[in-house]
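Question: Send over one sample?
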Amino acid sequence: TVNCYLIDNNGFILVSEDYTQTGDFFGEVEGAVMNKLLTMGSFKRITLYDYQAMCRANKDSSDGARGLLDPYNAFLAAVKWIMTELVLFLVEFNLCSWWHSDMTAKAQKLKQTLEPCDTEYPAFVSERTIKETSGNIACEDCSKSFVIQQIPSSNLFMVVVDSSCLCESVTPITMAPIEIRYNESLKCERLKAQKIRRRPESCHGFHPEENARECGGAPSLQAKMVLILFPLLLMLFSR
């Protein structure tokens, strides 16, 4: 049995026998085949950078040790805890729902804290010079074969993969972004090195060679003379 994929020049699946794979990266579905295509030169990896990304904030907390409690303070802390739990229970119990059952609200999950960061992620581009390529991949206990062929006059490729050999030992290739970690001194130097964008010297809102002109419009509302004269004639002849 074989699996057939239609991918574009960036390795994204456009058509697959499994419709849930549409839009996924080919390396995540067939990691062994994508790795082989990179080794053969059919695809090349390009590293892109995102300087406006948002990453999860990992804030370290440091607290000092609390002092020893005497029995009096321990008793007051226990009473305070019991009163707090009692008040929270009454508040969360929602007594109003006994009379108004429709006035309810669903609890929402707390959003994760994000902070600006720089990330890098891989991108993949095909080599247009390769029209058709085939290969075999040696796995643990089987051999996985595939054929890739470019569709003429398009940026699409047809990939046929042997599905009898899973080749699970090869790690899938993902496009997940990776956060770039800077030390404090390098971070300050990078902020100082940022240049302010220069404004354009002139406005280029129109070019004479474009020969653009405004066209289109809504029809104006006009009264038909027939509709105006017809009621008047009816009134004259009815007398």
